[in-house]
Amino acid sequence: SQQGEEDPQALSIQEGENATMNCSYKTSINNLQWYRQNSGRGLVHLILIRSNEREKHSGRLRVTLDTSKKSSSLLITASRAADTASYFCATDPRPGAGSYQLTFGKGTKLSVIP
Amino acid sequence: GAVVSQHPSWVICKSGTSVKIECRSLDFQATTMFWYRQFPKQSLMLMATSNEGSKATYEQGVEKDKFLINHASLTLSTLTVTSAHPEDSSFYICSALLREGSDTQYFGPGTRLTVL
Predict the structure, then answer these.
(1) Number of C-alpha atoms within 13 angstroms, CB side, residue A56?
(2) Residue B88 phi/psi, 5° resolution?
(3) Under a CB-based contact definition with an 8 Å cutoff, are residues A79 and A112 in contact?
(4) Which of B42, B103, B107 has the CB atom closest to A42's CB atom?
């Protein structure tokens, strides 16, 4: 089955810096979503970008999607210590109506140092 | 809105016993829910898709007789791990579709299962 791949696997930055995480996938998608997970907790939906969109913003988050390269990036600007978490990309791999099933990448563990 | 709860949040049981995990959509009706498992420092793996009033659809490699899923109402899906063994120890997370046609899944807080 398709598996997204995030890189880097781990990222450590100083508070105030920007954090960029990348995600690559293998097959055509209906949409790509980014989620955040604090240690030992459930997932929080951050943003969804559809296959016909190239960029999307939400607060300090900026997501890009390049379907020709089958890749996406998540940028968190002006990072805060509270942004420390694991970030996952997830794809709905079936185009058209969509199956609503998500395939998750391995995640990027972000540490923001105060 | 769109809150999903899970109960219990953690459970420790002896090998051979069965454990039931509940997933509830608190403020919306969910015809479709999903069950995932996550091993430490790894990603989420979809186990099954649960549809209200019908049998769950299991992913390849997931034993349906071991992981019983029941979606008896529009707000409740249950996962029962039967005859649990230490290798079943994991973090189990459910999610629910806000409504048909929505692409966004709302996730529960997860249940940590430890089998001794």
Answers:
(1) 19
(2) -85, -10
(3) yes
(4) B107
Mind listing the pLDDT tens digit of every residue in chain B (116 residues)? 689 999 999 999 999 999 999 999 998 888 899 999 998 888 899 999 998 888 899 999 999 999 999 988 899 999 999 999 999 999 999 999 877 667 788 999 999 999 99
CA-based nearest residue in chain A for residue B103: A100
Q: How far apart are CA A103 and CA B42, in angstroms?
A: 13
Residue-wise pLDDT tens digits, A18-41: 999 999 998 888 889 999 999 888
Which of B97, B103, B106, B113 has the highest number of chain A CBs within 10 A, making it the mutation to test binding with A?
B103
Residue of A2, A31, A37 to mutate, testing the B interface (most B Cβ within 10 Å of its Cβ)? A37
Burial-class residue A29 by CB neighbours within 10 Å (0-12, 13-18, 19+).
buried
Query: Number of A:B CB contacts under 8 A?
Result: 54
